[in-house]
UniProtKB/TrEMBL annotation:
InterPro entries: FAD-bd_oxidored_4_C (IPR004113), FAD-bd_PCMH (IPR016166), FAD-bd_PCMH-like_sf (IPR036318), FAD-bd_PCMH_sub2 (IPR016169), FAD-linked_Oxase-like_C (IPR016164), FAD-oxidored/transferase_4 (IPR051264), Oxid_FAD_bind_N (IPR006094), Vanillyl_alc_oxidase_C-sub2 (IPR016171). Coiled coil: none annotated. This is FAD-binding oxidoreductase. Residues 36-215 form the FAD-binding PCMH-type domain. It comes from Novilysobacter erysipheiresistens. Keywords: FAD, Flavoprotein, Oxidoreductase. Belongs to the FAD-binding oxidoreductase/transferase type 4 family. Gene3D superfamilies: 3.30.465.10, 3.30.70.2190, 3.30.70.2740, Vanillyl-alcohol Oxidase, Chain A, domain 4. The keyword Ribonucleoprotein does not apply. SUPFAM superfamilies: FAD-binding/transporter-associated domain-like (SSF56176), FAD-linked oxidases, C-terminal domain (SSF55103). The keyword tRNA-binding does not apply. Its cofactor is FAD.
Amino acid sequence: MTDPRFDALLAAAPGLRLTTERSDLEHYGCDWTRRWTPAPLAIALPASIGEVQALVRWANEHDIAIVPSGGRTGLSGGAVAANGELVVSLERMNRVLAFDPVDRSLTVQAGIALQAVHDAAREHGLQYPVDFGARGSCTIGGNIATNAGGIRVIRYGNTREWIAGLTVVTGAGDLLELNRGLLKNSSGYDLRHLLIGSEGTLGIVVEATLRLAEPAPPTNVMLLALPSFEGLMQVFAAFRERLQLEAFEFFTDRALRHVLAHGAQAPFDEVHPYYVVAEFAAGDGAHEAAALAAFEHCLDAGLVSDGVISQSDAQAAQLWRLREGITESLARHAPYKNDVSVRVSAMPAFLAEAQALLAREYPQFEVVWFGHIGDGNLHINVLKPEALEAADFVGQCESVTRLLADTLARHGGSISAEHGIGLVKKAYLEGTRSGAEIAIMRGIARVLDPNGIMNPGKLLDR
């Protein structure tokens, strides 16, 4: 570690862990996009708020950009450090700080893994209901930075709904305590919500107070086989009308084929074009009867062709693996990913147009669809052929994404449902946000990060 500027940083924060080992630079300098070659200046691993403030003030003094780093499970290039930035990983700030049984809240450091939050809430007979497949590696800070959604948004909403308070170090090095866990607070702008979804461009979330909920009711899981794409939203309507849905997830036969090749068990003797995993409250026999009634209604209408309902927790886990295992099973194909959303009411029209668009524009590539259909969120994965150079593949996909962005704009949708904008989707931000909105966002960034050091190049250009 030869850079003389580090001497001043370590003098200001003697306990700060700092590394320039090549393996660490490569490990911490990228996220799941894998499109950019990591090239950070160094990796800082603070263990306290004071150390975070010290390194932000040092970065301002020396004009060094900062990339905040959580679990780096993002898919939009939001945690990439490819231009000599200082990566600030909060993995050492990973403790539960307090539990309040009256407020039913849990205060944690931002580097704590989502799974650890689930476990801590469960110890107190409660739940933190935000959940996704990467729960073991993603962190609360990263979830907050992208307003992450996941598999239970249909029942519980996004991360935003469960944040009672935030402690943030701004891009100027100031410490803000936002909302302080209050349920009601009509005292001006709620800066807490401004930081949620800001992708590390305004400051670094260091602590969060999370709202907890009653434990989830007993549930059953049903896997449905669908003969056609067109009836998908009718099946959703039939189940939502009769059941308290916890999740309603969709995937295609192509997605299932990859998951089965990755070790999952085939759910049916026959292969069907489309599948839905539906999880629903099932505290008594009436709930299961309602589920069967919904299934029989869809079967009689020709909307579903087969189904299975879980009879044990183990079987429920097997059915969920068919959906949650998709991303991991596709990883070796270096997929180009679209993460889009529209209003649920606009989903049928958008689905029809998007399916036709992708079938026309991607005749040479395998396209794998899946998503949180119950909240209007679709994941579209385009698989790279082995013989095609990565740059050529991305170039072809981006030309199609421009067409998809136009389609989304016509249907009032968003190019990013839950993974953020980062580097990958920045060119399409204007399809979701107006010019006036983007100008206001830039102005806010200049106030909280006056020297433009916080995750520059991500989300928007300043």
